[in-house]
Amino acid sequence: MAEISPKAVVVDAAGLADDVKVGPFSFVGPEVAVGPGTVIANHVTVTARTQIGAGCRLFPGCVVGCAPSGPGAGDAACRIGAGNVIREYVTIEAGATLGDSNLLMVGCHVAHDAVVAGEGIFANFTRIAHHARVEPFVRTSGSTAVEAYATVGAYAFTTGYAEVRSDVPPYAIVQGVPVRVRGLNVENLRRCGFDAASIDALKRAFRLLFNGSRAAPTAEQLTEAEAACENEYVRHLVQSLRRSAAGTGGRALAPTTET
Questions:
Q1: 146 has which bridge partners?
Q2: What is the mean pLDDT of residues 13-36?
Q3: Coil, strand or helix: which one is 46?
Q4: How far is CA 201 from CA 14, 193, 196, 228, 232, in A?
Q5: Does 19 score more than 50 pLDDT?
Q6: Which neighbouring-strand residues pair with 58?
Q7: What angle do CA 142, 80, 5 make, to 5 degrees?
Q8: Residue spans per domain, the chain
Q9: What is the CATH number of domain 3-186?
Q10: How do beta strands 27-28 and 45-46 pair?
Q11: What share of the chain is helix, strand, coil (3-state, %, to 5)?
Q12: Angle 44-49-45 (CA atoms, 0-180°, nearest 5)?
């Protein structure tokens, strides 16, 4: 049976795994499901149709499944995968989806219909707007803002106060307002097990595609990089850039008509 503080409010404990812990002054709504080994600390709110996986940690003051601040997916399910660490005062809206093993530091926000794939580390006050997409193994610095419908590519890194208005290429370090590519995120790639040959191929591709310019790579540059740097990760990079170029405002998932 779940360990629930007598000072907590759990509307229906049937959705909680037997070893879940709920601290004092927390609220867990009637449609919430929580997986085994998850710890909900004091002063946490989990509401709406929220599903939380196994082995998560929810720290004081965080709110999961809250209604969107504007028009949005107020009745949609909020899905949180396994092994996530959600620190103090994080807000995750109804309709958002988190994969496994993310760390959201103090004050982060994930809006409705945003998708965070997994294995990400998001520093304090990172904001991920509605319908944004964050691919695996992304790292952000404090106060990064990912705008609606933008995609942050896998293994990318955003510096402090970065403003992501269009898609961030996979493997890139980006900086600025709006962001520009500053280089290849070599250290993260090494830590994630990329071999030296793949990193060298990505370095060559980045020099061909970006080379300090704010302009998006041309179709000719993409074709040249793909031919000159034969590598699966380079192919993924080129394909991602082509999808972004085919979208609206450099955002592959943007609607055709702005609202």
A1: 128, 164
A2: 97
A3: strand
A4: 52, 15, 9, 9, 10
A5: yes
A6: 40, 86
A7: 95
A8: 3-186, 195-246
A9: 2.160.10.10
A10: parallel
A11: 20, 30, 55
A12: 10
- Percentage of the chain beyond pLDDT 90 is 89
Q: Return the DSSP state at 257.
A: S
CB 4 within 8 A of CB 13: yes
pTM of the model: 0.94
Helix axes 219-228, 232-246, angle to 10 degrees: 170
Residue matched to tokens 């959201």: 104
HSE at residue 92, side-chain half, CA atoms within 13 A, is 36
Burial of 21 (0-12, 13-18, 19+ CB in 10 A): middle
Cα 179 from Cα 149, distance rounded (Å): 15
Query: pLDDT tens across 147-177, in order?
Result: 999 999 999 999 999 999 999 999 999 999 9
Pairing type for strands 163-164 and 145-146 reads parallel
Rounded CA gap, 192 and 121, in Å? 13
pLDDT digits (tens, 9 = 90+) for 108-150: 999 999 999 999 999 999 999 999 999 999 999 999 999 999 9
User: Is pLDDT at 255 greater than 60 in this prediction?
Assistant: no
Mean pLDDT (the chain, rounded): 94
- C-alpha closest to that of 45 among 88, 81, 106: 88
Cα–Cα distance between 48 and 77 in angstroms, integer? 7
Distance separating alpha carbons of residues 251 and 259, to the nearest angstrom: 15
Under a CB-based contact definition with an 8 Å cutoff, are residues 88 and 108 in contact?
no
Q: Quick one: pLDDT at residue 203?
A: 96
Model pLDDT for residues 190-219, shown as the tens digit of each residue: 999 999 999 999 999 999 999 877 778 999
Q: Are 209 and 217 in contact (CB under 8 A)?
A: yes
Q: Give the residue among 181, 176, 131 at the shortest CA–CA distance from 156.
A: 181
